[in-house]
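Fold in tokens:
===
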Amino acid sequence: MNSRQRRGVVLLVVSVLCAAAALAGVIAVVSDARSQVGPKVTAYELSADVPAYTALTAGKVHRISVPERWLPDTAIRDTGQFQGKIAAVPLKKGSLLQSDMVAARPELKPGQMEIAIMIDAETGVAGKITPGARVNIFATFAGKRDSDPDVSKIIVSGAQVIDVGEIKAFDKNQDAQRLSDQGVPITFALDAADAQRVAYAESFARHVRLALVAPGDTAPPPSGDRTYTLAGDTASGSAR
């Protein structure tokens, strides 16, 4: 073996050793990274925006794998933690779903029942009434005779909303008196007497409107303010 061949063998051996050292370095780095990241666990990420107080369904989230050490303690790891619940705040697409983002749906109390009515989307809801909200329910009735004044009444005060449905178009053949083209089914938790008042108003009132009650305001409207007529307002001198 001449000197040139010996140099070639030496260079080949050095190259093999360098490659082995590089491979060992890569393995060490990967092993160290794995040891720092740790095992991965299941979490859930929002696949769409979810407005506050709307239901969280499987179609609005997707499962992801996240290193356990990087996951906050409040992260939801099981579908049972959000199924049947609602968003407590507006949620953005791509957000990691956490337990403080969801809340249980409002439930009926003993003696209450669910009753749902269609409310004009523009005048009765305007996107601000959500499950858990409390509202006063107004109904406007025509006078029984032509000479009788129209009357606006607060038929239920402090009604609890337990569900807000999807906006849909009214059937104008059946809902000719509606002021807007679209409505929203609103479900309330009411006792029997209030449920009857709401059912009567939906059937016979010219219009039913909701007024959102301020959070923490539990005082019912004064009895003198529960019924309004234009004639009575004019007679009292308060008309402007």
About this structure: The helical segments are 3-37, 121-125, 192-204, 230-235.
